[in-house]
Amino acid sequence: MMVNYRPLVQIALLGVAVALGTLVLGWWVVPVIGMTWGLVARDRERPQLVVAMAAGLGWALLILWTATQGPVGQVARRAAGVMEMPGPMLALMTVLFAMAVAWSAAVVAGEMRRRET
């Protein structure tokens, strides 16, 4: 039985691209990468899922990296308190936001590509 590691490699590479892109250019990189992947990944199975997982991984990496750089726990508690939710929930919602944006952009790009053909 052969295991297909291609999606895992794609998620890892796209995740690093999302993290670095977000770090350098801001959160707008997430829909750009999602849309690009939706256009490029023609024959791949479930490109929306791959790019959503990558965006989540990328932002989770950014959250973990940021946690090592300063008082993230204190800031997260205050921000979460303003939003009336626990700190870990705020981190989870942040990751889910990136996943939803990337997934949506990939779906739109896929539909655009289908309508052109």
Description:
Helices cover 82% and strands 0% of the residues. The chain has helices at 6-25, 29-40, 47-69, 72-82, 87-116. Helix 2 (29-40) packs parallel to helix 5 and helix 3 packs antiparallel against helix 5 (87-116). The longest helix is centred in the last third of the chain and has 30 residues, at 87-116. The mean pLDDT is 88.
Keywords for this entry:
117 residues; 5 helices; elongated
Summarize the structure in short.
This protein is mostly helical and 117 residues long. The chain has helices at 6-25, 29-40, 47-69, 72-82, 87-116.
Topology of this structure?
Blueprint: H1 6-25, H2 29-40, H3 47-69, H4 72-82, H5 87-116
* Poorly predicted residue ranges: none
Radius of gyration, in Å, reads: 16 Å
Count every beta strand, where a strand is a DSSP E run of 2 or more residues.
0
- Largest sheet at a glance? none
- Which structural class do the helices and strands define? mainly alpha
**Overall mean pLDDT:** 88
Secondary-structure element string: HHHHH
Helix content: over 70%
Distance between the terminal alpha carbons, to the nearest Å? Answer: 36 Å
Task: Estimate what percentage of residues fall within beta strands.
Answer: under 5%
Question: So how many helices?
Answer: 5
What does the overall shape look like?
Answer: elongated
